[in-house]
Design goal:
Strand content of chain A: 15-25%
Largest sheet of chain A: 6 strands, mixed
Strand order of the largest sheet of chain B: 6-7-8-9-10
Helix content of chain A: 25-40%
Distance between the termini of chain B: 47 Å
Order of helices and strands of chain A: HHHEEEHEHEEHEEHHEHEHEH
Oligomer: heterodimer
CATH class of the largest domain in chain A: Alpha Beta
Shape of chain B: globular
Largest interface: A-B, 61 and 86 residues
CATH superfamily of the largest domain in chain A: von Willebrand factor, type A domain
Chain lengths: ~375, ~525
Amino acid sequence: MGQKIERDFQRFRKIVRGKIKSDLSKYISRGEMIGRKGKELVSIPIPAIEIPQFKYGKRNSGGVGSGEGDVGAPLGPGGDENGIPQAGDEPGGHILEVDLSLDEMVEILGENLALPRIEPRGKKNIVSTKDKYNSIRQVGPESLRHFKRTYRRALKRQISSNTYDPINPKIIPIRPDKQYRSWRETPQPQAVAAIIYMMDVSGSMTDEQKEIVRIESFWLDSWIKKHYQGVETAYIIHDAVAREVDEHTFYHTRESGGTKISTAYELCKHLIDTRYPPESWNIYAFHFSDGDNWGDDIPQCQHLLHEKLLPRVNLFGYGQVESPYGSGEFIEHIGELSDKHENLVLSKVPNKDAILESIKDFLSTGR
Amino acid sequence: MNSSTFYNTNLPVHLRVLKDEIEAYAHEYGLDFFETIFEVVDADDLNEIAAYGGFPTRYPHWSFGMQYEELKKGYDYGLSKIYEMVINNDPCYAYLMQCNHLVDQKLVMAHVYGHCDFFKNNAFFAHTNRKMMDDIANHAAKIRDYSERFGEDEVESFIDRCMSIDDLIDIHSVAIKRRGEHSKYDFNEETNSIEAEPPRFKSKDYMDAYINPRERMSDEREPRKKQPTANFPDHPEKDVLLFLIEHAPLRNWQRDILSIIRDEAYYFTPQGQTKIMNEGWASYWHSTIMTQKVLQSSELIDYADHHSGTMAMSGGRLNPYKLGIELFRDIEERWNTGRFGSEYDDCDDLDTKRRWNRELGLGRKKIFEVRKIHNDITFIDTFLTPEFCHRHKLFSFGYNDSAEQYLIESREFDNIKKRLLFSLTNFGKPWIVVVNGNHRNRGELLLKHLHGGMDLKVDTARDTLANLQFMWNRPVHLETLIDGKPSLMSFDGNDHSTQLIGDNDDGKRKPDRKA
């Protein structure tokens, strides 16, 4: 890329980032983005980056084409989204899709919500460095020579100096053509973390609520993963009993029957005891439910949280997803505990639009 | 690439030989062009140049970066590829893509000579600046200088606003010269003429009251102050940009940038006015030169593949290359066989018509004449025939509200021609004119959309209005039809409003906020 266009391109990317940042809630709550994170790129359609001009609307618009088809037959795709299809092969005003890496997206999330960086507990000072071969230098050992780049430069030079002969395409790199791989040191925090998601899958949680949980936990995941070298996740579902499941089952199970939250907390405690001893793990637990619980169970939940869980985890997030069926009382019952424990964060998520705020609730503690 | 305009002016030997050969053929056929300089560039460079509208030295702006991203993606995903790029300038500059096959290079060169001939000879290019390469670089230098002096963000966002209205020009004014030497503005004049003092005679202090009597001075000052309160312009003004340059309360650097944007918009105008003809003409000549002179039999398949790719229609959309070349061929054929004039038109016998041949052989001469005096609109208007539409299976299509998509509307000649001409009129964009720069006697700006049967897209119209308001710095109004009703869209700097015209007069209008 030439220097000049590079500059304009970066400027454009900056504007795109700004746009995404200001409309973040729209992009965050869009579920399909998660599905499209293939190869870590998030593709975001942004129609608003267009420079506005006076133009025609769709009504009465049209044009001329050619080919088969009777009067009344629909035209194939390819029309201009915003107005009349232009005569010809112009790119037209279609919506531009911009690729962002998931990393960038998470970075924007952090900036937008002004999230503090997470400070790992315990081993927080242990930082190792990792070498990444991701840059190029003019000097280096021959073993690191970048073959392709070197030859490409040589070819360019020969073509521009008119010494390239396509009949006899010999390319001989000279000293200034040679390019070498080079590395950059990136600090890698050594700390490891475990995220334990718990979700109520009793009858009152509908697909819509689960969608909210899925989107929210995706971004929670992404943010936490930025801060640790190794992150393990565990998933617990519960109705009147709890069990550990894989990620897919977690999001796709629906049970009927009563709710006993304490069973999930009990299992969570068990996981911490056996798998993620707090001495070596930073533990994040998130529990989502519609706030409906079996009345007699509440003291048991409070006890587990107060005695067994909160003293051992970095953060315990309880997200109450509003459902048409649940009573939504649970959040009040554990509310009193949050005075005693800074690391207990409660958040209500009435609908998709509230996801962003809720993420902020959970993560602005910086724990 | 910073200071030098050119990537590589030296063609490799084998391409230079080709260039000389093809140039000679082009001359032989009677094409007439400025000196043409070919540069060999790689795909990235070509995308970059194309993003800048063909001018690698264009001023910096993020939208070129966006263009580049689109072009690069299209190329990387194999969806689209720019084969050639040629600049209307004396000399002409043309770019060849490094990795193209030899047969493609030949085709592109032949195609380029067609364009260069068109640039030099078509009447609508006659007024274009043939030293645009230099001017564009000067524009860039000025804008970079302003960025340093007034801040990059400030300048950039002003350019955003200029680009938002850069199509509000009078595309015919260059040829017609409605207002004489209107492209000269004096940006160095610091004082605003509205407030300017009447001329004073030189005098000693104690004599001043006698030599420049206060009475006379205020008499002279009066008409100057009065002038802008009169309604203006006298006639609706199509060149909205010029009107703003002359009357909007802009700072000098802003005025200068707006005039740069305007100059460049005018420079690119004939390109848009003659797209079908220009591409058709170039395609006609690449196909003629290739098939009759240059093509080796071993290259035939590749050539045919490329040529048909260029001519392909997708999704029923019209391809200007295809329409243009076919129309030129049709004209050539008709003037060769004498299928024109009243005798042919009046003939009712289809069989006679089919076998009609007066052996006039005027085809070549005719198409040279056509390329000289027509633009796309007159070209289509004059030479599109029912037979042509039928042969090429043309149809008109329209947006169907209930089906929420475009449907084939008609295969009738009249409908097709009407649609085609409408889509070419003012580049398929709405006509907007300035009606009054002192609307309601309050210095507000009143624009009018000359409604041709199609409503404006409301959301973008609002945003554009806001950009106009920023420049005018007083409320701005646009008269248009919305769903058949005369409406007035307004933006006062804070709020947008839309009201029906007629049952609503100034008195009822909600009072403007104090600025």
